């Protein structure tokens, strides 16, 4: 079934397609959603429980912040069409062919294409794992790693590499990284994190560098907004 202009306007209670910002078409037996090429301002969209297999029509829905696509027929290759949706924060793709493959491959594909995404499949978890959540893969036990002077730099680097789908680096790849004498010294920890990131950049291709750029710009903007809110207004 094709999603039509008439059905969109009726469900959104709108007079024209450009004014549609929220739409719920749950369980409408849809297969064709090409109408979204004419709905540029959609922000929250529910298309769960349909028969959708292509997401190409959503590739220009740049205002999308929440997208619910549970129980459709979407393969992993279709994630690519969401790549330009930098405002997308919540994505639900469970019970689709793309989410029923190897979970690591599925999540990494999503991260690569949507680095600013916050939540995936409504599981209430941050998509990007915080430092320390990825187990050591360098042949040392977790206890050994925590006491190892190179642990901090290796951990930071390999966390980032894992999120980008790269293999973790081994200990012999860290000859230039100095060791923090005191784990409580936040300045040294930051210095090690920076060294780890710079080391990581050497192995990234152009596409992956662009992902890093997008995430960095997003972080900078967020920090600037936070600092701006902290700055008290001066009255004359």
From TrEMBL:
Entry keyword annotation includes Repeat: yes
Gene3D superfamilies attached to this UniProt entry: Ribonuclease Inhibitor
Gene Ontology biological process: cytoskeleton organization; mRNA splicing, via spliceosome
GO cellular-component term (any): photoreceptor cell cilium
Pfam families: HIND, LRR_4
Biological function: Plays a role in cilia formation and/or maintenance. Plays a role in the regulation of cell morphology and cytoskeletal organization. Involved in DNA damage repair.
Protein name: Cilia- and flagella-associated protein 410
Organism per entry: Danionella cerebrum
């Amino acid at each position: 079934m094709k999603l039509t202009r008439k059905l969109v306007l009726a469900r959104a209670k709108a007079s024209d397609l450009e004014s549609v910002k929220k739409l719920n078409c749950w369980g409408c037996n849809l297969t064709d959603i090409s109408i979204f090429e004419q709905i540029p301002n959609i922000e929250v969209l529910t298309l769960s429980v349909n028969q959708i297999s292509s997401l190409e029509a959503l590739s220009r829905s740049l205002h999308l912040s929440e997208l619910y696509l549970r129980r459709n027929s979407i393969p992993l290759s279709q994630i690519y069409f969401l790549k330009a949706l930098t405002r997308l924060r919540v994505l639900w793709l469970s019970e689709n062919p793309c989410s029923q493959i190897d979970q690591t491959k599925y999540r990494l594909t999503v991260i690569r294409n949507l680095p600013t995404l916050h939540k995936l499949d409504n599981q209430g978890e941050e998509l990007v794992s915080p430092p320390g959540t990825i187990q050591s893969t360098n042949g040392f036990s977790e206890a050994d790693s925590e006491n190892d002077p190179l642990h901090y730099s290796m951990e930071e680097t390999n966390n980032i590499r894992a999120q980008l789908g790269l293999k973790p680096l081994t200990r012999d790849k860290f000859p230039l990284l100095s060791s923090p004498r005191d784990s409580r010294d936040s300045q040294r920890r930051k210095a090690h994190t920076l060294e780890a990131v710079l080391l990581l950049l050497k192995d990234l291709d152009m596409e992956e560098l662009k992902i890093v750029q997008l995430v960095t710009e997003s972080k900078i903007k967020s920090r600037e907004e936070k600092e701006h809110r902290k700055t008290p207004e001066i009255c004359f």
